[in-house]
Amino acid sequence: MPSTNSGLESDSSSKRFLATWLIGGLVAGISITAALHTGWPELSPFNNNRKKKRPVRVYMDGCFDMMHYGHCNALRQARGVGDQLIVGVVSDAEITANKGPPVTPLHERMLMVSAVKWVDEVIPDAPYAITEEFMRKLFDEYNIDYIIHGDDPCIMPDGTDAYALAKKAGRYKQIKRTEGVSSTDIVGRMLLCVRERTTSESPSHASLQRQFSSGHSKKYDDGGPRSGTRVSHFLPTSRRIVQFSNEKAAEPNSRIVYIDGAFDLFHAGHVEILRLARGLGDFLLVGIHTDQTVSANRGAHRPIMNLHERSLSVLACRYVDEVIIGAPWEVSKDMITTFNISLVVHGTVAEDDDFEKDYKNELTTPAR
Ligand SMILES: *[C@@H]1O[C@H](CO)[C@@H](O)[C@H](O)[C@H]1NC(C)=O
Fold it and tell me: Where do Polar residues bias regions lie (predicted)?
């Protein structure tokens, strides 16, 4: 899977292309070869005959285990360094060897990273530390210009810097780590939630805690304050929300699809239902329920992530066009009119653990 940025956008653009091609073929009798030569400018970005400069391609790697909006923010910043972002997702074996088994397997971590709207390509089974051989591959095969990492030191168990080679080659750039969240924090919140409900700590919780509360800070998986089970306080700013938002409003004639939910601990099942929902129209509006609404319907210990955090995770998803930060439980007539909603996709009740096998049945289109 060299490129996974092919879901929705290329789908609709190829449909558009097909339509253009059909019309072109009928009206002007353009031959297939001519259409192929003119129709796919993105296939030749490295064509030096054109005036257009080759895009700057940047690489960032990570484990992306239990992915959260902090990872997304790092990817957003990395993308800002260049024109195209290629992300290496570390293999299960490499994570296991360096810090213990990951919670989410590679295919799921790949899916989550591919769904982030700032990611252009994903490379599976990336090494934990960039080797000479892999670095050559990045430069020669993937045409990478710069290797990006956060400003936290990434020291291997043997004391070496994981990015030493890239730095030596003069192809290293740094971004700031700003988001006040880490997987350690999230696991801490989950443990608090479990502990409040049950006194006996199961072994799986203990091992989760061990993995995320020990270890060295690297690869965007921990690095938050490591003081045991501790709840972080994320302070949302309007700037961050703007940075995560799409600038485009719905086009005048677009079919607006609405879906609502808690989207707590944003995962691969959420990504899949958002992808399907987006496919039903031209613009996907996602209503995120308030913390109070989620608690009232799912129990006092939910949600784990607060409204703003959940909104950022959903906004980072490439299938989402806009979110309502604090949507009501019921879709009102007023909302339908205000947002010109054509279709309400009902995914709310199927958000729990059995979500992934049930969502297909839930993807109905009630006439509201
Ligand atoms: C509302 O949505 C419909 C499609 O469902 C579209 O035809 C119409 O132009 C939209 N109205 C406005 C004011 O955008």
Answer: 200-215
Report the separation in Å between the CA atom of 303 and the middle of ligand 1, taken as the mean of its atom positions. Answer: 34
Q: Is residue 134 part of a domain?
A: yes
Mutate to test the pocket of ligand 1, among 253, 339, 344 (most ligand atoms within 8 A of CB): 253
- Of 305, 310, 269, 271, the closest CA to residue 287 belongs to 310
Question: pLDDT-derived band of residue 6, with 50, 70 and 90 as boundaries?
Answer: very low
For 119-132, the pLDDT digits (tens) are 999 999 999 989 99
Query: Does residue 210 share a domain with residue 251?
Result: no
In a domain, 367, yes or no: no
DSSP 88-155: EEE-HHHHHHHHS--SS-HHHHHHHHHTBTT--EEEEEE-SS--HHHHHHHHHTS---EEEEESS--B
Host domain of residue 142: 55-234
In a domain? residue 115: yes
Residues 102 and 204 in one domain: yes
* Residues 285-296: tens digit of each pLDDT: 999 999 999 999
- pLDDT(321) > 90: yes
Query: Beta strand pairing status for 172-175 and 341-345?
Result: unpaired
Domain match, 197 and 327 both? no
Residues 205-257: tens digit of each pLDDT: 555 554 554 433 344 443 333 333 445 566 778 999 999 999 889 999 999 99
Mutate to test the pocket of ligand 1, among 254, 285, 341 (most ligand atoms within 8 A of CB): 254
Of 197, 212, 234, the last residue of a domain is 234
Whole-model pTM: value is 0.74
Same domain (yes/no): 276, 347: yes
Residue identifier of the C-alpha nearest atom 10 of ligand 1:
253
**Same domain membership, residue 251 and residue 221:** no
